UniProtKB/TrEMBL annotation:
This is TetR/AcrR family transcriptional regulator. SUPFAM superfamilies: Homeodomain-like (SSF46689), Tetracyclin repressor-like, C-terminal domain (SSF48498). Pfam families: TetR_C_33, TetR_N. InterPro entries: Homeodomain-like_sf (IPR009057), HTH-type_TetR-like_transc_reg (IPR050109), HTH_TetR (IPR001647), MT1864/Rv1816-like_C (IPR025996), Tet_transcr_reg_TetR-rel_C_sf (IPR036271). The keyword DNA-binding applies. Residues 38-57 bind DNA. It comes from Mesorhizobium calcicola. Keywords: DNA-binding, Transcription, Transcription regulation. The keyword DNA-binding applies. Residues 15-75 form the HTH tetR-type domain.
Length: 212
């Protein structure tokens, strides 16, 4: 699946240098991967002097962490909206909604997903916003599974394993698509996104308890 280009600013406008540098870093990743990024190259792309960015970002890791923070905030928003728009109070359906929103966002924002998924590029431990947004998404999933278990709607009694399996599945499907491996697996006549959603929905049917 070709990577979607991220609409970006063409250069620095007064008062917006930080955002311009973040946009430039995303564009550099899209063009040549994470190794293509440097603070100085982002400055050049933003149209400012090589020293200007260092008021905001002391090094490449700091710049990439800021990109990840922006991406994670959008990721959290996408998933939260999906859950809030769900009409049903069924926790299994809510659990599925989290996974589908995860897949949709990752496939439509491959560069951002790559950045937030590659911990070696960012300083995860120093970023409170990254950890908070990630925990919010994880909590939505966990609360759904706990509620489903309380209502005897799960086959398994192991909540942790169910969550890990679900997270591994959506992450793996997203990576398969972004890394170009999904085409050979996609169902004929379906988009990669549709096939991935179908696989996830199949998984959800397997974890549900059919007993009344």
């Amino acid at each position: 699946m070709p990577k979607a280009k991220t609409p970006g600013r063409t250069g620095y406008h007064h008062g917006n240098l930080r955002d311009a540098l973040i946009d430039a870093a995303v564009q550099l990743v899209e063009e040549g991967g994470p190794d293509n990024v440097s603070v100085r190259e982002a400055a050049k792309r933003a149209g400012v002097s090589p020293g200007a960015p260092f008021r905001h970002f002391s090094n490449k890791t700091a710049l990439m962490t800021a990109v990840a923070e922006q991406a994670m905030s959008r990721f959290r928003s996408e998933i939260t909206k999906a859950v809030e728009s769900l009409a049903s109070d069924d926790p299994i359906e809510r659990f599925a909604a989290v996974g589908i929103a995860y897949l949709r966002w990752a496939m439509r924002n491959p560069t951002h997903f790559q950045i937030i998924s590659t911990r070696s590029l960012i300083d995860w431990d120093s970023s409170e916003s990254l950890r908070n947004d990630n925990e919010a998404v994880r909590s939505l999933m966990e609360e759904s599974v706990v509620e489903a278990q309380r209502r005897n709607m799960l086959r398994s009694t192991d909540i942790a394993e169910t969550q890990i399996a679900a997270r591994a599945l959506v992450y793996g499907l997203a990576r398969m698509c972004i890394d170009g491996h999904f085409a050979q697996w996609a169902v004929a006549g379906h988009t990669a996104e549709r096939t991935a959603q179908d696989v996830l929905e199949h998984f959800v049917t397997l974890i549900g308890n059919d007993a009344p």
